Amino acid sequence: LSPGAKMGCFTFIKVMMILFNLAIFLSGGTLLGVGIWVTTDKDSFLDVFGELSSTVMQVVNVGYFLIVIGAILLVIGFLGCCGAQKESKCLLMMFFSVVLIIFIAEVAAAVVALVYTGLAETLLSAVLTPVLKEKYGVDETFTKIWNATMEKIDCCGLNNYTDFNNSIWHDQNKAYPEPCCRNVQPCNAALAAQSNVSGCFDQLLEEIRTNAGVVGGVAAGIAALEIASMSVSMYLYCRLDQK
Asked: pTM of whole model > 0.70?
């Protein structure tokens, strides 16, 4: 290619790099704002999006999760956008390094998830069951979220109705939550066993397995974008030496 064509290609890639990272920066700012909103005013968030929108709050504090993801995207977007705009080798290398670290972490997490899926499920269940026993019927928001979850996906507890044995709710009411008996009252141990309602954990895992193709496609798309971003940043970095 002629010097003019090479310069034109460099300018085009530089502009695309700026626009792409500007979109990442704005997305990160949006997630950060939503995360702060959820953290500081959870009730208002639930009023707007409904109780089921925060079902996963049983496992992860959604507000802090969004704040972390938003902050990471802000940093990535800033480094990529400013690095391309100012043609700064330092910022471009920092951008490349951050994206590379995230990519390696994602690959490692995927490998661990595939190899130790059974162990992860066991550990997660062991951690969450005591929380369910302690907070269900005590924490109003936690209880509402669990009730909405159990009614929506027709499940009971994490594994089954026995998760409520020796819980504060069971000790106070001498019964199990209504969804454990398919909303038949009184929900005692015999009726709960006869109803045989599966646990919410199994239901959620089954839903994830059902949509594994979609999840895999999204993960592959994200990985492709990360590889493309690293390639473009390294191209710009190397071209700056030639300039």
From this structure: no
User: pLDDT-derived band of residue 98, with 50, 70 and 90 as boundaries?
Assistant: very high
Count the neighbouring beta carbons within 10 Å of the beta carbon of residue 80. Answer: 28
Residue 81, burial from CB neighbour count under 10 angstroms (0-12, 13-18, 19+): buried
Give the per-residue pLDDT at 56: 47
Cα separation, 145 vs 194, in Å, equals 25
DSSP alpha helices (H): ranges in 41-61? 42-49
Burial class (CB in 10 A: 0-12, 13-18, 19+), 113: exposed
Q: Which amino acid is at 211?
A: N
* Tokens, residue 97: 């390094």
Which tokens belong to 238?
Answer: 């190397």
Q: For the chain, give the mean pLDDT.
A: 81
Residues 6+ apart with CB under 8 A from 111: none
pLDDT category of residue 43 using cuts at 50, 70 and 90 = low
Taking the alpha carbons of 166, 168, 174, 180 in that order, is the dihedral positive or negative? negative
